[in-house]
Amino acid sequence: MTLMGDGKDNQAVKIRVENVGVVRGVPGGSVVIVDDVSFAAGRGETTTIIGPSGSGKSTLIRLLNRLDEPSSGRIYLDDTETGTLDPLELRRRVAMVLQKPFMFPGSVLDNLQLPFRYRNAAPPSADSDEVRRAVALARLSPDFLDREARSLSGGEQQRVNLARALIGRPEVLLLDEPTSALDRPTADHLAATLHDVCRSEQLAIVMVTHDLRLAQHTADHLIYLEKGRVVEEGGAAELLARPQTEAFRQFLAEPAWEKESTDGK
Amino acid sequence: MESNHVVPMDLAQLGFAYGLILLAAGLSRLRKIGQEGKLLWDSLRMVLQLLAVGYLLHLVFAVRSPLPVLLMLLAMTGFSLQIAGTRIKRRMPHFYRVVGSSIVIGCGAVTFYFCLLVVGYTPWFDPRYLIPLAGMIIGNAMNGATLAAERLSSEMHDRREEIETALCLGANARQAAEPAVRNAYKASLIPTMNTMAATGIVALPGMMTGQILSGTEPGVAVRYQIAIMCAITGAVAITSFLILLQGYRHYFTEAHQLKE
Predict the structure, then answer these.
(1) Which GO terms describe its cellular component (chain B) (predicted)?
(2) B45, B106 Cβ separation under 8 angstroms
């Protein structure tokens, strides 16, 4: 597979994955989870990775902010190999929203201040530009700032999660199954928010999802992964309209993605 | 009875005391609880262990040299570590190295501080003081250490989501593990704090009772008890602190990644 198969120019590329593999030891041998995957994600666009359960999607996205290390291959942020960057600095530049929104004890504002506390910086106040901007981007009402974060609904918590990831002005946003715990209308609202944030902030979004509808609404670039390998890759609209392989056609035809996403995984 | 003499205990008297174990076993059998075999076996083990320790202490007391005393303290530490290792269900990574070094440093420092500076007897290795005092300190620190290690292990497992969320938000390993470490530290101190709160009201502590029985003035025995409780608290706190300080790191890689 070519590195920038869809003709993305070097200027637009924010994060680049080159021949990445993940092999895990299991009793009696080893198993390949991600197999020689390459792709590039650009500024101001959403790259969505879809595929059946166990296809290695979540493992792959966790490599991008070094929550895990690849067994082989390289990942570049701009032109710097991520393995050479301080992982804490990398995670400030490449924010990640995990599948289940975990709320720390305290108010929504306390949660939004955490990234600053972690880097020993003065936490911004409720009326600071940072907090206002993050809350607005996540379409969260400022009235929520004083609310106990854990008392919020799933959809509201996911918005706090998003605001908390965006408050440090990351360059890349990773999303691992962001709608898996949400009902349909809430998931659709989140999809619209993500789409706008991606454009307005010129963020490079890389998202893993089972939710085909979310992919349809947000993806610019689509990667179909199966058994750790890229089976299809290209412009989302084109690929969804005209799948090239039988495997992807079958995946699109099966409503399994919907079942799995409402099951929470 | 004269105040400074203990009533000697002969085998017949011991036999009467052992009768109470037989009574406990009999009750177990009567109610078909099925624990009598284990009870008798455990009591027999207790008798044999104490007899062996008695003879060993006799020997160590007679030699009057630091080496056998230190070897005995080392053996006590080794046994307590082994017991802790088998008692824990979910062991933290590098359990023996982490807990072992923490006990040696924590208990060693507190024992020598206590024996040399607080009590201040000579010679420093006098087994009549060093062995029982170190025994109490090690035994209690072991309980604290077991709780700290076990709790850290379960907290790190249960809080996986929280820890990874913190890492994603830019936390380093220490910051991400802080709530788990804090809870484990609290848990390790609970039994010691409970004992302090109950001492003198619910139960008379063993060392104080022993000293009073062997003829020591109650005022002196009380002062010893207060001092040893302080030493135990210090040893539990330092040992648990060292375990947690070393322990949480083993759950992370150098790149602040939570291991599988």
Answers:
(1) plasma membrane
(2) no
Which pLDDT tens digit goes with each residue over B52-105? 989 998 999 898 899 999 999 999 999 889 888 887 888 889 999 999 999 999
Residues of B in contact with A69 (CB under 8 A): 253, 255, 257
**How far is A252 from chain B, CA to nearest CA, in Å?**
31
| Residue B123, preceding peptide bond in cis (omega within 30° of 0) | yes
- Is B82 near chain A, with CB under 8 Å? no
Cα(B141)–Cα(B136) distance, rounded to whole angstroms?
8
Residue A229 Cα, gap to closest chain B Cα (Å): 23
Quick check: B168 and A96 CB within 8 A?
yes
B185, B184, B182, B166: which is closest to B258 by C-alpha? B166
Q: Cβ separation of A67 and B169 shorter than 8 Å?
A: no
Q: What is the pLDDT of residue B4?
A: 57
Closest to A118 (Cβ–Cβ): which among B161, B175, B258?
A: B175
pTM metric for this prediction: 0.85
How many Å apart are CA B99 and CA B119, to the nearest integer?
Answer: 27
Q: Can you give the pLDDT at residue B234?
A: 96
Q: Which domain does A214 fall in, by range?
A: 13-262
Give the sign of the dihedral formed by CA A114, CA A119, CA A125, CA A126: negative
Closest chain A C-alpha to B163 CA, distance in angstroms: 10
As a whole number of angstroms, the distance between CA A35 and CA A56 comes to: 9
Crossing angle of the two packed helices B173-198 and B127-158, in degrees rounded to 10: 130
Give the tens place of pLDDT for each residue, A232-254: 999 999 999 999 999 999 988 87
- What value does the mean pLDDT take over residues B125-130? 92
Domain ranges of chain B: 1-63, 66-251
Q: Is residue A5 part of a domain?
A: no
DSSP for A198-264, written as a single string: HHHHT-EEEEEES-HHHHHHH-SEEEEEETTEEEEEEEHHHHHHS--SHHHHHHHH-THHHHHHHTT
Task: Name every residue in A having a CB less than 8 A away from some CB of B.
Answer: 65-69, 87-88, 91-92, 95-98, 100, 102, 104, 114-115, 118-119, 164-165, 168
Which pLDDT tens digit goes with each residue over A170-208? 999 999 999 887 888 888 888 889 999 999 999 999 999
From chain A, the residues in CB contact with B165 under 8 A are: 98, 102, 104
What tokens does B181 get? 């470490």
Under-50 pLDDT residues of chain A? 1-6, 259-265
Nearest by CB to residue B161, choosing from A88, A97, A100, is A100
Is B175 at the interface with chain A, CB within 8 A?
yes
| A3 in a structural domain | no
Number of domains in chain A: 1
What CA–CA distance (Å, rounded) separates A208 from B142? 47
Is residue B166 within 8 angstroms of chain A, CB to CB?
A: yes
